């Protein structure tokens, strides 16, 4: 029989305030690479116990996606940095789910879990009896989140979907890059990451509903759905005009000036969001007359006339040292900031103050990682240990299963 699972509202009321929000929730992660593991890592950061099921010998694909690889204190090579970026706080067990014994182990774990994360191709788990229908037969309260490239239905449902493909098909690349350049993907896998975040939101909503109904759920998450869903204002721009938005480099399709500029010694972003800020920018640059010019006085006018406005601003901004202008913008309340490479990001005083680079304990010592962005009641929600070695917890998990039977 499944172990008793929490009634969400009652558990929330009874839980000691210092406990993590998802303490007592168990997640079975049958997912690899990024979108599913990203959701699993976030749930682990929020206090859930996350058991990561991996293939024997190879484990998650991203254990090998290097270089670079992390190293232990003696300089020995560990798994790829990519794997450690998305698997903090989990336990690992190696199971061959194609074998009857492996399928039985997964069912036993699912019977004692609250959530299953999986990113197999549509129908792949059904042949093992490990899809939502099969797992809910042993645990009616189970919440299964299925993450695929194109969803459980539709003409593309059987296709494999990778972030790069989804950024291309979902319109993101057509919006990214210089106007006269080639379409570009983003520097990180945003379709995967957004899907992981939306999956977590859906899981938490299903947990809340289960607390009231006692019934689990099957969540259908698709990378393409997510990528199209986060086109946001660009999609509405198209719907309003019937014209597909074009690449604008670092400029903003609905605001001006809202882009990068070259200073005398580096690049800076100026992000004017309203007419008052524009007037302040003009005063800083000694261009007060621009703020009263009917061509530029309001944002709609500035967007319409950006072709004449931007060169004038760029000429004035090019005379300033970057940090001097950044300080003046901050002093006058005009949003802006430098364009930092990643090494400068982690040297930034605000990033350091917020503790966004962390070190988590593991069997190989303290390993570097990124902090969870969520802070609740002053406590940052970081899992308390590093990503696991392959099958590091297999023996312990199997012993726990035997004890719960």
Question: What does this protein structure show overall?
Answer:
With 405 residues, the chain is α/β, with parallel strands linked by helices. It contains 17 helices and 15 strands. It has helices spanning 8-14, 35-45, 81-84, 100-111, 132-138, 163-169, 190-213, 223-229, 232-241, 275-285, 288-292, 299-304, 306-317, 322-332, 342-345, 349-353, 394-404; strands at residues 26-30, 49-54, 69-71, 77-80, 91-94, 115-118, 143-148, 217-222, 258-262, 267-271, 336-338, 357-362, 365-370, 375-376, 379-380. Strand 1 (26-30), helix 2 (35-45) and strand 2 form a beta-alpha-beta unit.
List keywords for this structure.
405 residues; alpha/beta; six-stranded parallel β-sheet; three-stranded antiparallel β-sheet; 17 helices; 38% helix; elongated; disordered N terminus
Low-confidence stretches: 1-17
H/I helix tally: 17
Outline the biggest β-sheet: 6 strands, parallel
State the shape.
elongated
The chain-level structural class is: alpha/beta
Helix percentage? 25-40%
Lateral arrangement of strands in the main beta sheet: 5-2-1-6-7-8
The span between the termini is 8 Å
**Proportion of β residues?**
15-25%
> Quick one: how many beta strands?
15
Question: Could you give the topology of this structure?
Answer:
Blueprint: H1 8-14, E1 26-30, H2 35-45, E2 49-54, E3 69-71, E4 77-80, H3 81-84, E5 91-94, H4 100-111, E6 115-118, H5 132-138, E7 143-148, H6 163-169, H7 190-213, E8 217-222, H8 223-229, H9 232-241, E9 258-262, E10 267-271, H10 275-285, H11 288-292, H12 299-304, H13 306-317, H14 322-332, E11 336-338, H15 342-345, H16 349-353, E12 357-362, E13 365-370, E14 375-376, E15 379-380, H17 394-404
Parallel strand pairs: 1-2, 1-6, 2-5, 6-7, 7-8
Antiparallel strand pairs: 3-4, 9-10, 10-11, 12-13, 14-15
Helix pairs in contact: 2-7, 7-8
């Amino acid at each position: 029989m499944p172990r008793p699972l929490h009634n969400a509202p009652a558990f929330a009321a009874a839980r000691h305030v210092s406990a993590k929000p998802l303490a007592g929730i168990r997640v079975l992660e049958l997912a690899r690479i990024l979108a599913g593991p990203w959701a699993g890592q976030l749930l682990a950061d929020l206090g859930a116990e996350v058991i990561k099921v991996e293939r024997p010998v190879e484990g998650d694909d991203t254990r090998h996606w290097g270089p670079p690889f992390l190293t232990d204190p003696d300089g020995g090579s560990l798994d790829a940095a990519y794997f450690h970026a998305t698997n903090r706080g989990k336990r690992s067990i190696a199971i061959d789910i194609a074998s009857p014994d492996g399928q039985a182990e997964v069912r036993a774990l699912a019977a004692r879990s609250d959530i299953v994360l999986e990113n197999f191709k549509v129908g792949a788990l059904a042949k093992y009896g490990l899809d939502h229908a099969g797992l809910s037969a042993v645990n009616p309260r189970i919440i299964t989140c299925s993450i695929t490239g194109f969803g459980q239905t539709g003409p593309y449902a059987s296709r494999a979907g990778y972030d790069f493909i989804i950024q291309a098909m979902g319109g993101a690349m057509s919006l990214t890059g210089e106007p006269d350049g080639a379409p570009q993907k983003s520097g990180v896998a945003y379709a995967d990451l957004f899907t992981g975040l939306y999956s977590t939101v859906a899981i938490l909503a299903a947990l809340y509903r289960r607390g009231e109904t006692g019934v689990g759920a099957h969540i259908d998450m698709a990378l393409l759905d997510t990528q199209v869903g986060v086109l946001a204002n660009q999609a509405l721009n198209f719907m309003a005009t019937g014209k597909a938005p074009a690449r604008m480099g670092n400029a903003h399709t609905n605001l001006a000036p809202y882009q990068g500029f070259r200073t005398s010694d580096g690049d800076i972003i100026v992000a004017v969001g309203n007419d008052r800020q524009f007037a302040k920018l003009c005063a800083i640059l000694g261009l007060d007359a621009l703020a009263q010019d009917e061509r530029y006085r309001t944002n709609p006018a500035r967007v319409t006339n950006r072709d004449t406005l931007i060169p004038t601003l760029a000429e004035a901004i090019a005379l300033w040292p970057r940090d001097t202008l950044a300080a003046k913008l901050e002093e006058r309340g005009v949003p802006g900031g430098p364009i930092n490479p990643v090494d400068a990001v982690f040297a930034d005083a605000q990033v350091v103050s917020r503790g966004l680079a962390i070190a988590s304990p593991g069997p190989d010592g303290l390993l570097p990682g990124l902090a969870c962005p969520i802070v609740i009641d002053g406590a940052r929600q970081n899992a308390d240990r590093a990503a696991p070695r392959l099958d590091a917890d297999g023996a312990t998990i199997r012993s726990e299963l035997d004890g719960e039977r």
